[in-house]
Design a protein that fits this description.
This protein is α+β, with helices and mostly antiparallel strands. The protein folds into 2 domains: 35 residues, Ubiquitin Ligase Nedd4, Chain: W (Single Sheet), CATH 2.20.70; 150 residues, Nucleoside Triphosphate Pyrophosphohydrolase (Alpha-Beta Complex), CATH 3.90.79. The protein starts with 10 loop residues before the first strand and ends in a 13-residue tail after the last helix.
């Protein structure tokens, strides 16, 4: 932010009195502009043991596969946003069973919340941001073509939980590639191969 959205004057980045972090502060009207993480919400939508996947028609990761998800809008609950994104990206109607996975991506200021859901019918198809939709069982998931580490981790948990016959709640943090490689070097283990870009 370069200019105040309240009065239009230039802002300066400094720590306001009583705060601990630099903020965009208007030098004219003293408005403090807070920038907070973006919330991404979506659904792991099931039909008879298979999961609905969408092949992306937008960047980043054009042409790769994901679950229907996107940015939460103002005025929405997280569940309502997940339902909307599933309808927009896959023209799919679902019933949500509960929150399944939460992933922190602090390096790009995002938080993912993915819900477990059941497809209400098989009348689905690509939305405006989707090239193709497909139901996949575990062996059919294009694992090497998944767009995001959050989606890969969530699907691994989903299929593992289904085999156990009980779905839990999963939470984790996705770190940037360089940090993961450094940690893997210290453990003499291979680092994970992918990193989430800045947009869902």
């Amino acid at each position: 932010m370069n200019f105040c959205s309240n009065c239009g004057a230039p802002v300066e980045h400094r720590i306001p009195p009583g705060d601990t972090l630099p903020r965009a502060v208007c030098g004219a009207c003293n408005t403090i502009h807070y920038e907070n993480p973006k919330m991404i919400v979506g659904c792991v939508a099931e039909w008879d043991g298979s999961i609905l996947l969408c092949r992306r028609a937008i960047e980043p990761r054009y042409g790769l596969w994901t679950v229907p998800a996107g940015f939460l809008e103002n005025g929405e609950t997280t569940a309502a946003g997940a339902l909307r994104e599933t309808l927009e990206e896959a023209n799919a109607r679902v019933e949500i069973d509960g929150l399944f996975a939460l992933y922190n991506l602090p390096h790009i200021n995002q938080v993912y919340m993915l819900f477990r859901a059941r497809l209400l019918d098989l009348d689905f198809g690509p939305g405006a941001e989707t090239l193709e939709t497909r139901l996949c069982n575990e062996s059919e998931v294009p694992w090497s073509e998944l767009a995001f580490a959050t989606v890969r981790n969530t699907l691994i948990h989903w299929f593992n939980d289904r085999r156990k016959g009980e779905f839990g709640f999963h939470m984790g943090t996705i770190e940037p590639m360089a940090r993961r490689e450094a940690k893997a070097d210290k453990r003499d283990e291979p680092a994970p191969a992918s990193e989430d870009p800045a947009n869902p």
